[in-house]
Amino acid sequence: MQEECIIVDRNDKTIGSASKKECHLLDNINQGMLHRAFSVFLFNTKGELLLQQRASEKITFPDHFTNTCCSHPLSFPDELDETDAIGVKRAAQRKLKHELGIEPEQVPLENFHYLTRILYKAENIPKDNKWGEHEIDYILFIRRDVDVIASPNEVKSYRYVSQSQLKELVGTADKNGILLTPWFKLIIENFLYQWWDRLDHIESVADRETIHILS
């Protein structure tokens, strides 16, 4: 919770840093604090997407299903480097190892495709009037077969899904008591399936100039 996240303005310009705790306190979010984040979508060579269920101990959105890995680049030189989003990619590689035990050599930096950014804001569920998210989120796609050794402190469960399986999961989530993170739902609703259909030509859908404001 004391790791220093990167504070940005709404144009994604770095303006400072703050602890992970400070970045996720609703009091700070409601005063406009915004930080940089990333969401990794890792597909195997069969075209299936790796999902994770967040651990119960997470301060934001515990037990929620989400994309492969979601976290933050930190405020130190290697992860502040904005050249071709290399700092964000380094952070993604680091967190894939930390959360899912995926070795860096299985997810080379040059294999990450930075597609676009979204800006969103969300309160924690269950609502406790304390924690939330307010992020400019870099969307990263990567297609690799990997070995997963999930950390139980970070990940409650994981699974690979096809498009049809994800659509069924989302469509029956409320009925089955399945929780989905707000950023994952926004990405599904606005982008995911059209990107998934272009997985073999993923660079053709990249839009690195736009910050999509979603709610």
From TrEMBL:
What is this enzyme's EC? 5.3.3.2
Pathway(s) the chain acts in: Isoprenoid biosynthesis; dimethylallyl diphosphate biosynthesis; dimethylallyl diphosphate from isopentenyl diphosphate: step 1/1
Q: Which UniProt keywords apply?
A: Cholesterol biosynthesis, Cholesterol metabolism, Isomerase, Isoprene biosynthesis, Lipid biosynthesis, Lipid metabolism, Magnesium, Metal-binding, Steroid biosynthesis, Steroid metabolism, Sterol biosynthesis, Sterol metabolism
Give one GO term, molecular function aspect.
isopentenyl-diphosphate delta-isomerase activity
What does it catalyze?
Answer: isopentenyl diphosphate = dimethylallyl diphosphate
Q: Name one GO cellular component term.
A: cytoplasm
Which processes are annotated in GO (biological process)?
cholesterol biosynthetic process; isopentenyl diphosphate biosynthetic process
**Nudix hydrolase domain location, by residue?**
33-186
Superkingdom, taxonomy of origin? Eukaryota
Q: Which InterPro entries match?
A: IsopentenylPP_isomerase_typ1, NUDIX_hydrolase-like_dom_sf, NUDIX_hydrolase_dom
PROSITE patterns, per the entry: NUDIX
From the record, give the transmembrane residue ranges. none
CDD domains from the entry?
A: NUDIX_IPP_Isomerase
Which top EC class is given?
Answer: isomerase
Q: Which cofactor does it need?
A: Mg(2+)
Q: Which NCBIfam families match?
A: IPP_isom_1
Protein family membership: Belongs to the IPP isomerase type 1 family.
**Function per UniProt:** Catalyzes the 1,3-allylic rearrangement of the homoallylic substrate isopentenyl (IPP) to its highly electrophilic allylic isomer, dimethylallyl diphosphate (DMAPP).
Q: What is this protein called?
A: isopentenyl-diphosphate Delta-isomerase
Q: What is the lineage of its organism?
A: Eukaryota, Metazoa, Spiralia, Lophotrochozoa, Mollusca
